[in-house]
Task: structure prediction
Amino acid sequence: MGEAALSLQARFSRIARRRQALLLVLAVGLVLSLGLDLMAGPASLGVGDILLGLFDPDSLELRHRIILWDVRLPDALIALAVGASLSLAGVETQTVLDNPMASPFTLGISSSAMLGAGVAIVLAPALPIVSPAAILPALALLFALAAGGLILLVIRFSGGARETVILFGIALVFLANALTGALHYIAEADAVQQVVFWTIGNLTKAGWTEVWIVSAVVLFMLPFSLRDVWVLTLLRGGEAHARSLGVDVMRLRLWVILRASVLTAFAVCFVGTIAFIGLVGPHIARLLLGEDHRLLVPGAVLAGALLLSVSSILTKTLIPGVIVPVGIITAVIGVPVLLSLLFSRGRRA
Result:
């Protein structure tokens, strides 16, 4: 019996060490991906130029300094921040709704942001205090937060029933898509082109201000997620089990959806809707790190950031001289990755 317990403890320790090593691998992969993203592009900036430019910007030619600090660095960093935001929102949403297909898209938050952007582009309303250049991200943010508010109301009045929340999110997706389609119908051709371009995501629109805002939101929300890792892990054992141990599931669900709404709203309001990161990032982390949210939550943040960073590299390198919208890349990568994960789980079940 003693040997069996010792063997079990040794096995648990080995699994824990392996998962910690995988978390480290994700972090190292993220740093390497960031470096490759900074090197990707038509200007010939090698590893030495990038390192020199980061630590001593004045040593670079003015042209290369502008390319590195005003173009490539904001694009690369916003990819990390947005990927981390969407994946963090996705992993928590999947856990509290007990649905592997749950994500910011399933809840209709991204579609609502798309509708807000469509209103800004087609109707061009004037908002007090907000400058004309900021109306599009402001309305996208406003509509996304409004969607989050509606979901919170549904949770409040349905007693936190997860099926009701998911069905309402799907209904919200259809409504937002229908209203965006109506905007297409009345818009001029140029406006339709702008709306379509925004809906497929573009990291190149972001500057340093957007990088700081999205990063600050992630860094503000992450401690709250880490605080809840124990109860989120308990919830994976079943809602009844969590309730029997004193977890207020409805309150937890309310706070998680609020966090997911804010994370998604700020992530998509600057770069447009980017598919699959909030869905696939958490699944990759689960496959590598299991259901212990002490590792899963930081793992999902790293996996989402890494996935969008790799996508950002591909946008610049697939077609020389052309930047492909990142939403197209994430969809092309996300579908086969998601299918392989689903088949992998099916074989193990």
Notes: The radius of gyration is 21 Å. The domain at 71-335 is CATH 1.10.3470.10 (ABC transporter involved in vitamin B12 uptake, BtuC). The chain is about 80% helix and 0% strand.
